[in-house]
Records
---
Amino acid sequence: MLIILGFALSSHKDIVSSFVEDYINAIKELTEKMLTQLSIPQTFMNGLFPKYMTSKGAYVKILIFKNEIQAAILITKLLRSSTLDIDVELVEESIPRLFALKSTTNITPFFYVGEPFCRVERIILVTERYFNKYQKLLEDVSYSTIFKGVGINALVHLEQEGDVKLIDVCIDAEMLPLQVNDAIVRIPFLWFISYPIEKLRTNVAKYHALYEVSEYIHRLFARPAPKVSEAILYQFNNIVKDEEYEKPLHDFLCRYPWFIEPGTIYAICNEYLGR
Amino acid sequence: MLFVTSIWADRPDMVLFLFDGTVTIVELEPSKVKLFTRQGSISSEFEKRLKQVRDYVMYYREHRELFNKFVEEGILRTTPSINGIRVILIIASSLTVEELKELNRIRSLYEKEGIRVLTYDELITKISLTLKYISGKMFRSYKHVLLTPDMFEINKSIVLRGFVSLVGGLAI
């Protein structure tokens, strides 16, 4: 029996590990492709995209308790390395138990807002005692998600000094496994747990990667990057100034299809476009 | 985000996939197409184009399994519903007031079938407003034009958004 259980858990580790690899690789590939096609300078994305999309290397730690993913922790400290290291660990204790003592049932989502585009709703400092057991694990974590069971979804950030910061934001409710009425921004990796481990497949990874990257590309064209939008505006004005604007406008629309239909995440342009 | 390929024999100019699982087919036609005859009735060229996009919608609504490939690839969340397949026809420019009035009447008829007709002028205005809005230029001009000294501050983006949607019907 123990051998079978051990085999199942080990198989879970493999599935999760290869899934995360697919996800991260798809993110990087898509980010690079989109930025090249949209002619967006690298410097824009460094400040506006989450670090795990821009750093060359990444270290990902995933915790599995029994047969459920308990936490997806992404550490992006490997700026100088280009390797992707994934560590899937089977833990013996349910992480949400740490939160069960905390009387914050009214606080559902937390988010570490380390990026300029994230909207802070409120910041809560939590004493370290709730995190004693996992403090070592959480050291230097830039993004982490801790959830499940008690209805608390949290992204936690440990400050240099060791304080634990829980920062409240709203979430894209569609991506949440819970019922949440507020909807503002998304949390990386939170969708992860809405899938049973057995259903984590390459196409799921690609889908989420595509959505994730599109989301940030969309943000790039919103408030945080006026220079990018001004450059596009300049380009657009040049196109429509010309009497023969049709073909260049068609090409423009292929590059920026969401001007036709906001919310577009994928577009196919016919090679015979404009004929 | 551009993936150039020719996936269907009918070759619509663009196919847009939205996160909510809907698909928008875009047909770009020349801006110089005359929509109406001198007598004010619909031109045969326009009629032909309307028929073409109607055929697209009907075809893809009947053959929704064509989109399964994109579901498998993780691009679409689900196969689009019948109403989730729509088409935008972008055509013509420089319409007169009378022509625009007539076009609006035609639009309301085709809207029910999932067909939207947009002129190049409208598209250019829409893009221009969107770009001006997101680059902050509209905010500045709006402030300049509409604010009197006693109404000095606009710091709620909701006000501006309301203004933009009022002007351009934009969904940003």
---
Amino acid sequence: MIPHPVEQQTVKTRTNQDWLQALREPASPEALEELRALLLRGLRAALAARVNGDVDALAEDFAQEALLKILASLETFRGESRFTTWAQRIAVHVAFSELRRRRWKDVPLQTFTRRQDGGEFTPELLASPNSSPEALSARADLLHNVESLIFNDLTEKQRTALLSIVQGGFPLPVVAERMGTNPNALYKLLHDARQKLKRRLEEKTGLSTQELLSFFEEA
Amino acid sequence: MTEIQAESLTNLLHRILTTRPEELGCETCCEELGLLAELESQGEDAATLLPLVRLHLENCQSCNEEYAALLDALKEV
């Protein structure tokens, strides 16, 4: 990997205000190039361990796209972190959003069904070999309760979203896009679903969350 | 049609039982990742200072992946 000439230069120490001032219209070409080089270095490092293929080319594309987004979002910077940290966070978000879209574009969301085998969960799958038979049995009962609540108490939308993520391994933003919503709204829908399941589980078993949790950990 | 697997249900059960009444959405969490990264790199107890952000990262694989990538990126700049 041959460093870009600008990357070899010593990066100036700019304060957050310096960055904002230099990047507002008309933006300083020097500051733009400095930021682009910084984003590029960060993206290469972020992508190197996670992506197969031409990391340099991907990082170049994402750095350019991120730069445009950062310039369009300057007024939303609240100064809670260093400007360069904020900018790098946007670049990583741009890159990973696009990578997720590409990775999952041809994979359809699934629908889920109840177990067909009479509902026996294999205890060995669920706990350590040292667990007592009582603990294993009680934990299997808990799983049956959860499964039943998923099918009886959740809406189709909640069930599909929850299981696509937990079992299907779908990224939340991809599920949100498929369902015609945004990640924030989908997270809210999933949070509502988890709260409902938690409440119903307590009602159904007569146990508190803390009791259920400690029991869960015992198994 | 896909059958629900025991392992998925076990993971889900744990998430259900650790659900809090107030949780952050992805956008709000995302906005705080820079601050979280800086606090953690300074050795601050970010789980105490930003507990809802940490909780969201435990519940959201996508945000968690972006946070790990951000930490790698920041090491280089």
---
Amino acid sequence: MASTSPQRPVWRLSPKVVPYLLVSPFLILFLVFGVFPLGFSFFLAFQSWEPTAGLSSMKFVGLGNFAFAITDEWFWKSLKNTAWLAFASGVPQHVIAIPLAYFIHTSFKRTRNSVIGAYFLPYITSTVAIAMMFGTLFSTDFGLINIALHALSEVPGLGWLISGVPIDWLNRAENVKPAVAIVVFWRYIGFNTVLYLAALQTIPKDIYEAATMDGARRLQQFFYITLPSLKPMIYFGVTLSVVGGLQLFEEPFILTGGRGGTDQAGMTTAMYMYRTAFEFNDFGAASALSWLLFVVVALLTWLTNRAFKPRDGSQ
Amino acid sequence: MNLEKMAPRAAYLLVGVGALLMLTPFYFMFVFATHSRTEIFNLPPPLFFGDSFLVNLHILTEKIPFWRSLGWSLYVALASTGLTLLFCSMGGYAFAMFEFRGKQPLFLLVMGTMLLPSFLGMIPTFMIMDAFGWIDQPRALYIPGAASAFGIFMMRQFIGSSIPKDLIEAARMDGCGELGIYWRIVLPLLAPAMGTLGLITFIASWNNFIGPLIVMRSPEMYTLPLALRSMQSPVNTEWGAVMAGSAIATLPLLVLFAISSRRLIDGLTAGAVK
């Protein structure tokens, strides 16, 4: 503190040092546990070693881990599963969250907060508790979902919609993915609804008043005013769903007992990466898998961006 | 009645029924927590509360160190909330109110990692913890958790928009020391944002599954989500006991949500809206 000005007591910190002092606890942890692992993971993707022999047996294998991954049948399978799940749980979230937010925005006053709370609640509860709960609800013979479906199929006029009850949700390969998608949908619908509610609040009321004066009906107002105004938020929400959906891990992991279920039908790429590392003890290949998945995430995020950008000339 | 009038009523009904459907799994989690395994797998399954809760709790504490896991979950959640609030408020204050070399690139780096998928760091994180000898140590969960990029972002936004620079300047003129300014002026003004960040951090830590899955290897160190999952088996899962455990794990969240849902929802979607 030799440089402190004379009127400042010696024990007082110089303002130049203060910001570094304030940032350093966060920064040190951030560099060690946030930045370093990313770089190290990239390094590991090009290495191979025998875990029992320790890190000293590590050797550079070039693109070997990547070559292994892209010729690996399970990698492609997991990627297909992930894409299926991201799509099947993601698209309905937005298709339903938008009108849902619109109805809540326009028709709910006094009970508004409780209704939003009910839809949002699954988002803040533990995935494990949720997945365990759905494990019982999905039970083939005694699960409430099958019982409800059975009851619905007895209703005249609805029977043709529902076939094959009782459905063996978690043990048959073709049913595992829909079961996981239902849980994911249930968990994130409220989050998306809140996003759209926030966006709806920014649309000026006088646009609707003017439209009503011009004789536009509510449905027309929804399609010609509301939807176009929501576009930036749809872009944002879909991006979040794409990024989150491709990283899906916890829900399928717990619902399938950690192994992906019958025929690995519920094994996502993030799960396969975890298993490659901690079950098959191949950290190098697992790191390569994680970077391949990262490329897929980046690519799809870019495509989403392209899809939502207004084309030249039009609009 | 014409369609224009019917539509909002139908919508009202649909949204209401939907809200009830969203809550149904929670209801049955609590109902099943009070029934034995055989009662749950009955036709029809129980639709209302039974009296087997204590029996389920007994099974639970026999199969897994349930209270211990609950204690670890609470300990880790409190420690990570405390550290996150301290470090992120300090860092956020520096980013919002000071000019220093490397500030812009550093902030961009912090924001950039928020966009990167978390699974990229999974394997190196395990290896670091292993090298530090932190496997099976709660600190392996709450120390990395304190480096929250989201926390820094949130604190910087809040300080930048709600604490006037003049106030800090005035305090400095009056001879208040730098740490005194942080402790006596900035921190009290940060209270609302600290409340929100604290809630979010606590809940995220309480629910964290992947973190403990990677670093907690022995059952007596399991946090609650891991312990509950260890009850799962291909045959003979004690569903009543599992539901009792899940219900106990969910209850604190329901209470927190009930008293602070507005603040939580706003906080969790804040990054999106601003």
---
Amino acid sequence: MTSLYERLGGAPAVDAAVDIFYRKVLSDDRINRFFDGVDMEQQIAKQKGFLTMVFGGPNNYTGKNMREGHKHLVAQGLNDSHVDAVIENLGQTLKELGVSDADIADVAAIANSVRDDVLDR
Amino acid sequence: MAYIHYQGSDYLLEEGETVLDGLLRHGVTNVAFSCKAGACQSCLMQTAHDASPPLAAQRGLKETLKSKGYFLACQCRPKEDLTIQTPDEEGLSCLATLVEKKPLAPEITLLRMKPEAGFSWRAGQFVSLVHPEDPQIIRSYSIASLPETGLLELHIRHMPQGRMSAWAKAAALGDSLSLRGPAGDCFYLAADKTVPLILAGTSTGLAPLLGIMRDALASGHTGKIFLFHGALNADGLYLEDMLNQWQHKHPNITYKPCVLANGQDIVAEMKAAIASLNLAKAQAYFCGAPEIVGILKKAAFLAGVSSQNILSDGFLLAPPPR
């Protein structure tokens, strides 16, 4: 039984997905204000870490850094609807890359598992 | 909390404080620095006895410098005590002689400097000049010329109270100074000579873009090449005649100067020019004012340029003298 991360294609799949995903996020008026003024290179590196994590791959994400990293955004009004939008963009990205609905559901479940950390509750 | 041992004294760093900030806070004055963002490499220091500094403090340094314990003081947050020294200039800097100087614009001067034999670079990288009378003043300038010319072409913008640009203003042919580098990864890389090249920048951000363009032309690049040069007012645009001639001579070149104070929007100009292109393999280079560089990067990315094909060099200014 191969892992979800391996099935999705590992690190090359993350590289393929990151531009599509981040472009969707920056074009999404529901959430793009949270990315105003952030450095693109740093943000792409972070998004790669995020994608690796939700693909079930080796990552350094911890509840603590998810919480710390988003606290300033929670103060600016980050809530469940924004997390939903991110997960929706994630799903559409994977669909474009030909990932099965079952695998997309697994990825969404991992993303959902950090929701409370991201929203600091 | 870590102690820094430097020139016979011990300095306690606060939690999370960088070596540079800590030394400055303790009143140590003989440390060089400029951008304080890990880019310019002016604050280069070295550990004693080849001890290893934190990895993050060596980002962007050449392997030869890393192996000798060089690090950037502004990026160095040691967890343990560290003994440091001013960097050994041996193998770090090179002497260069001024061989040509001419005005490009009211506030911009072109310098051509001849480095010692063996100094190599890629057009678009930068060198850091060390002020001949005050070695703590180290400022970075991008290279507009190809290594085949044997001369470093630099565009110096005169800054109010700028000590390095004052040197450039007063310097005479034959004067020399030492320089460090080259560093930076903003140079021509296209393995495929048919892809679009998108170059945009402000003020002396033109210097590295010219270097990249010269490299592309010398390499036989056949894809479209777009150059957008922005300046606050018309005085800040320069080399327009030469660039118009290039545009005339090379049908693949599009040159668009933008006077920002007249409402010419460099970002909008770029977006309009590249909107109908296939950008999947395009290479984009952005140099100059960091805020505009950030906006250009985002716009190019959203237009379809791959994030790994976007290279940039935001020019961070040194704080004015106290």
